[in-house]
Write a structure and sequence with these properties.
binds magnesium ion; binds adenosine-5'-diphosphate; four-stranded antiparallel beta sheet; single chain; alpha/beta; about 30% helix; 7 helices; Rossmann fold
């Protein structure tokens, strides 16, 4: 069976001033369909760079990423953008909600087809993440945990087969953080979705099917 995601030989470095730092030093990683994987490691280990590279957002200097058998960085920019919008969902540490839009309008935003269908689906998703009574609230009227729930609902609007999350609990207290991870795991398992989550929280990182530990741009444990 083709893995949902297959990364081979990923390398990436950044130049700061005169000197270069190697951030990804040869990463090989396969994620199966429906698997829930946590990428853990210290700050600066390369977790975000790896996640963005896996998700088609950061072109590697060497190596390949195949998503459902398709080579991401062999696609044109437009094809890659369309694939990301249609098949992948993203959740970030800062929720990136538009402040002037309601929860429901934020959730509708990435929908390919706007209108009544998107609004109905957005309402269903908001109910699913426990915000059935908050659809018409603005982000400023919601707590951090609630805003992250809106962002999670938004990530699901196009029914993606894979969800990527970068430190989704980074701005939350431990109780809300636990709840957000439980929600992501539940949404992944119940929807047959693959989930790849970056966290530096060792306790949270143990809650998936697999923990991949990144140390200095390499996989130290998988
Ligand atoms: N766009 C960039 N330009 C320069 N350096 C970067 C850039 N992105 C990341 N880095 C550097 O790469 C290293 C790894 O960063 P990152 O992938 O964000 O690690 P983590 O998410 O594990 O904290 C850090 O030293 C960081 O400063
Ligand atoms: Mg990071």
């Amino acid at each position: 069976m083709t893995p949902r995601l297959a990364a081979r030989g990923l390398k990436r470095s950044f130049r700061i001033g005169g000197s270069g730092i190697e951030v990804l030093r040869g990463i090989d990683l396969e994620v199966q369909a429906g698997e829930t994987v946590f990428l853990a490691g210290a700050s600066g280990a390369g977790k975000t760079t790896l996640l963005y590279t896996l998700a088609g957002l950061e072109t590697p200097e060497a190596g390949t990423v195949e998503f459902e058998g398709l080579s991401l960085y062999g696609l044109s920019g437009n094809a890659l953008a369309r694939l990301r919008n249609e098949r992948m969902g993203f959740v970030f540490q800062s929720y990136f909600l538009l402040p002037e839009l309601t929860a429901r309008e934020n959730v509708c935003l990435p929908a390919m087809i706007q209108g009544a269908d998107a609004r109905t689906r957005a309402s269903e998703l908001l109910a699913r993440v426990g915000l059935g009574g908050r659809m018409d609230h603005l982000p400023a009227e919601l707590s951090g945990g609630e805003q992250q729930r809106v962002a999670i609902a938004r990530s699901l609007i196009n029914d993606p087969s894979i969800l990527f999350a970068d430190e989704p609990t980074g701005n939350l207290d431990s109780k809300n953080g636990e709840a957000i991870i439980s929600l992501l795991l539940d949404l992944a398992k119940s929807g047959g979705r693959t989930l790849v989550v970056v966290t530096h929280d060792e306790n949270l990182a143990r809650r998936g099917d697999r923990l991949v530990r990144i140390v200095d741009g390499r996989i130290a444990e998988s």
